[in-house]
């Protein structure tokens, strides 16, 4: 006959289970506390939000309709009749990660719950999670990525840093970050013309400075810097330039004529010197540098001057000649490594000749007041992208934000560009002055080596 269990034992078992649960709970709590303490202070609000999202996910998913019910039979071990119908609830599994801009939530798709259903639920999720925006994309088959934006990367000012550019070469142009805080690049390899337009004071010159700072430390880049504004904007950067000019139309014409001379000489010798017909196939080098011609406030030099007096006629002739030179450099300079970047407040035909503008492979627009101005720089397709339209950027919060066609992305992308303090740009120019070379002299030296061999 079996003896009844010891009553002390029956009391001990629930106590042991309780103690085990308490230990597990304490370990769990300690783990969370350690993780919280280790997280940098600015990321802690993101971490708290990430935990809230994780621990309330099942309830949230049910409330916003991200749940699917399935009718099935009881499992074989169940004591319910095999013919009974049971309802199973399917909720997408999630993994969360903390990001500088918020929380990244990766959700596995389930049945009919895919990217479209998440997109439809995005605004409800934003309400439940008390954030401005939840953006949804398909990361890969079976995985939907939600970006829970706690800070808006487009309105959060960023500053240019040397680390951010890393080892990016002249073929890559790091423009800034998009609305999701993801890096955005513009094509630079094989590009001979770039037009940057936007209302005064919205960040064109700063954008060009960021490009300058990215390229200046490379011996494979030489600059021609032309500032139509004539103010102090480029003062110290000129020390890193092969050629430079302020608002002196004649000097500008002369400089551009010299770049054209370089282009012609390079066209004649590229096959012999580089062994290819397109410099971008081998990339720019110290001996065959990419020549970046920056013309800020470009309309200053390209506008026709009306008037019958001798000075007006002279200026008009200079403007026509300058326009012809710029147009030729953009049309023919691509394969020999000449890149012209034009910045202007308006890219309409009266400011920049359409022949020049339409040959530029890359277009970037900061805020614009009118649709015509936006269409002039970005093309008529921009009217199909109301969210990315430069007219939306007139709010002062969008100083430094531009609409552009980015590398590897469909349509237009809004990009927060980093601000470059003058002191940083001046310091970089000062530290890299020793890299200035005359590309024409470099070419002659290469030709010399070709004929006489290296001694
Ligand atoms: N990327 C940016 N982020 C934040 N502020 C900026 C940015 N770019 C420019 N700014 C601010 O706007 C001002 C004007 O910028 P600037 O580049 O000179 O404009 P533009 O050349 O279009 O007239 C700068 O002095 C700076 O205060
Ligand atoms: Mg400017």
TrEMBL record:
Ranges for domain FtsK: 181-375
Domain of life from the UniProt record: Bacteria
Record bears the keyword Cell inner membrane: no
Presence of keyword Protein biosynthesis: no
UniProt-listed SUPFAM superfamilies: P-loop containing nucleoside triphosphate hydrolases
GO MF term set: ATP binding; DNA binding
Keywords, sorted A to Z: ATP-binding, Membrane, Nucleotide-binding, Transmembrane, Transmembrane helix
Positions bound to ATP: 198-205
InterPro entries in alphabetical order: FtsK/SpoIIIE/SftA, FtsK_dom, P-loop_NTPase
Segments traversing the membrane: 12-34
PANTHER family recorded: DNA TRANSLOCASE FTSK, SPORULATION PROTEIN RELATED
Name of the molecule in the record: S-DNA-T family DNA segregation ATPase FtsK/SpoIIIE
């Amino acid at each position: 006959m079996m003896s009844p269990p010891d009553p002390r034992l029956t009391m001990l078992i629930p106590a042991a289970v309780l103690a085990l649960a308490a230990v597990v709970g304490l370990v769990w709590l300690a783990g969370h506390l350690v993780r919280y303490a280790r997280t940098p202070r600015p990321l802690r609000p993101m971490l708290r939000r990430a935990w809230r999202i994780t621990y309330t996910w099942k309830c949230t998913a049910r409330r916003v309709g991200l749940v699917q019910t399935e009718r099935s039979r009881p499992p074989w071990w169940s004591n319910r009749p095999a013919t009974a119908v049971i309802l199973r609830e399917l909720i997408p599994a999630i993994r969360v990660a903390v990001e500088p801009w918020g929380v990244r939530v990766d959700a596995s798709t389930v049945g009919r719950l895919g990217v479209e259903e998440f997109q439809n639920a995005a605004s409800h999720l934003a309400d439940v999670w008390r954030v401005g925006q939840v953006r949804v994309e398909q990361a890969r088959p079976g995985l939907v990525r939600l970006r829970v934006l706690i800070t808006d990367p487009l309105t959060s000012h960023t500053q240019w840093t040397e680390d951010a550019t890393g080892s990016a070469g002249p073929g890559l142009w790091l423009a800034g970050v998009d609305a999701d805080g993801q890096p955005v690049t513009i094509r630079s390899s094989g590009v001979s013309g770039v037009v940057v337009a936007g209302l005064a004071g919205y960040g064109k010159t700063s954008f060009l400075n960021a490009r300058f700072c990215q390229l200046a430390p490379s011996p494979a880049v030489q600059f021609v810097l032309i500032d139509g504004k004539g103010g102090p904007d480029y003062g110290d950067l000129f020390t890193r330039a092969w050629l430079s000019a302020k608002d002196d139309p004649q000097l500008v014409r002369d400089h551009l004529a010299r770049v054209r001379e370089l282009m012609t000489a390079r066209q004649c010798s590229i096959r012999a010197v580089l062994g290819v017909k397109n410099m971008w196939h081998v990339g720019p080098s110290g001996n065959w540098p990419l020549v970046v011609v920056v013309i800020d406030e470009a309309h200053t030099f390209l506008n026709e001057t009306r008037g019958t007096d001798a000075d007006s006629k002279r200026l008009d002739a200079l403007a026509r000649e300058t326009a012809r030179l710029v147009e030729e450099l953009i049309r023919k300079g691509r394969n020999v490594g000449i890149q012209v970047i034009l910045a202007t407040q308006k890219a309409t035909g009266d400011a920049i000749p359409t022949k020049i503008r339409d040959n530029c492979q890359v277009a970037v627009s900061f805020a614009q007041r009118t649709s015509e101005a936006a269409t002039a720089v970005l093309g008529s397709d921009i009217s199909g992208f109301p969210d990315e339209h430069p007219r939306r950027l007139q709010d002062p919060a969008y100083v430094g934000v531009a609409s552009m066609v980015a590398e590897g992305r469909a349509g237009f992308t809004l990009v927060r560009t980093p601000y470059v303090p003058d002191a940083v740009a001046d310091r970089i120019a000062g530290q890299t002055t020793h890299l200035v070379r005359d590309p024409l002299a470099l070419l002659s030296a290469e030709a010399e080596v070709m004929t006489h061999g290296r001694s």
